[in-house]
């Protein structure tokens, strides 16, 4: 087999995808079983939990999800009373989303569970490996964004 032949087990984009799918499956199970929310819904809650109200398009950018996924997650969360919608004073064509008291309570409950899951996933890594992994992932994200696809 020529050296330039693609071997999936050695192809970093494939390995990243496999690792992401494995982690996502674990996290999706936790979020769905314990809290009745999807990964996309949790991303919206987590983003809103980190700060002030945001326009949906800002959530799309921050979450790296498509508009339809964010819209569906927001509708589901709004329907459950976890987020609220207000007019955007800066753009009358848009609105802003924010956590309700129930949404904030959910965030305060799920966030420690998410951190515990991360700790469990990374338990076998030395502190320097965790830092290196974070740095490398950020560099890969930047390189992918720079590709412009």
UniProtKB/TrEMBL annotation:
Cite a single GO MF annotation.
DNA-binding transcription factor activity
Is Nucleotide-binding one of the keywords UniProt gives this record? no
InterPro entries, from UniProt?
A: HTH_MarR-typ, Metal_resp_HTH_trans_reg, Tscrpt_reg_MarR-type_CS, WH-like_DNA-bd_sf, WH_DNA-bd_sf
Question: Has keyword Transcription?
Answer: yes
- Superkingdom of this protein's organism: Bacteria
The family database entries (Gene3D superfamilies) matched by this protein are listed as: Winged helix-like DNA-binding domain superfamily/Winged helix DNA-binding domain
Q: Please state every residue range assigned to the domain named HTH marR-type.
A: 1-142
Keyword annotations of the record? DNA-binding, Transcription, Transcription regulation
Q: Per its record, how is this protein called by name?
A: Transcriptional regulator, MarR family
Q: Which organism is it from?
A: Edaphosphingomonas laterariae
The taxonomy runs:
Bacteria, Pseudomonadati, Pseudomonadota, Alphaproteobacteria, Sphingomonadales
